[in-house]
Amino acid sequence: MGKFIHTISAPIRELKNVVGNLIIFWPDTVFGNKLRNSYYKKHLRSLGKNAIIESGVRFGQPNTIDIGDNCLFGRNVNVNAGNCKGVFIGSDTALAEGTYLRSGNHSFRDLDKPILNQGHFAKAIKFQGQEYSVVIEKDVWIGAHCILLSGTHIGTGSVIGAGARVSGIIPPYSIVVGNPAVIVGNRIEKYGSKDSKI
């Protein structure tokens, strides 16, 4: 009986994966976005209102990912939350095309053991009463093809320039560029009024 169930369930799992990929790669139309929102609403730990999820966006280990309202995910963004504490993405945040977020890393300390057999490790960030491995607070703009690694905590209102590689703490309203990422300015100091406060 067990072999029969396995024989039947394997093609069903494959069919679910085919349907999932069809939804993920559906063209960027109003229907495609609604389809992806509906699909990810069932898989993510939380997905806020009015998300725009473009074609090719992937969420690895989605049951550990929290996403706020009004977020934009450009084409082929990859939020890989595997082997970590989870990922938080705040409201009104945009991740541009090709951004890659990886919240866990391969262990590689044991020289007598292949890296692929050493498991993973992930950093822990306490945020809003929970632990995450990557936190992106609200109103953040992440440019195209950025790489965000375990331990990244980007403060509210920050801008991360295209192609930046981030792996640490970015204070609120920072302007960040480069690989490795460097803070080159502060939006309040550069553009804010004299009454602006962080």
TrEMBL record:
It comes from Pedobacter yonginense. It holds the Pfam family Hexapep. InterPro entries: Hexapep, Hexapeptide_acetyltransf, Trimer_LpxA-like_sf. This is Acyltransferase. The lineage of its organism: Bacteria, Pseudomonadati, Bacteroidota, Sphingobacteriia, Sphingobacteriales.
